[in-house]
């Protein structure tokens, strides 16, 4: 059960971010730009990174929902599990593997990142922009993982699948009028989860 009085077993990240638009509106725009904006990383690669970082951090909610989003973009969910359990055995290209190894080190021991780590990514064929795009996705999900786990939101398979449908179709942007329909969105989500 979540730790805050305004959250319950049906809560997801929107129950945090929609509650305080002044604080979180710019984060929604930033997230959409990082995850759906122009990038040398495909949308599916960015969703793999989101799920992978979340798995490394053991954030059930973010790993669950972003594994589902990655699935919706054609990625086998087993890949995420393989990356987390044994990255060297995962079925990804050598180039992407090198980028993911950088992200793993950045997530688990960020102060130990050195120039040689970046040079290995560049030697694998990635540009500075490509590495920066991956760093932004990794950093964003380290933040989101702490946000969700800090509030005690864990979710379940039904929540992950439902949320993934929205993120796959609409991405991460939130309309300006959300404050007027926030209650309706929550009621609709809870009804679907109970149904």
From TrEMBL:
Top-rank taxon, per record: Bacteria
GO molecular function term, any single one: peroxiredoxin activity
Carboxymuconolactone decarboxylase-like domain residues: 26-104
Keyword Oxidoreductase: yes
SUPFAM superfamilies, sorted: AhpD-like
Keywords from the named record: Oxidoreductase, Peroxidase
Keyword Protease appears in the UniProt entry: no
Pfam families named in the record: CMD (PF02627)
Signal peptide: none
NCBIfam families (alphabetical): ahpD_dom (TIGR00778)
This protein's name: Peroxidase
Organism: Neolewinella aurantiaca
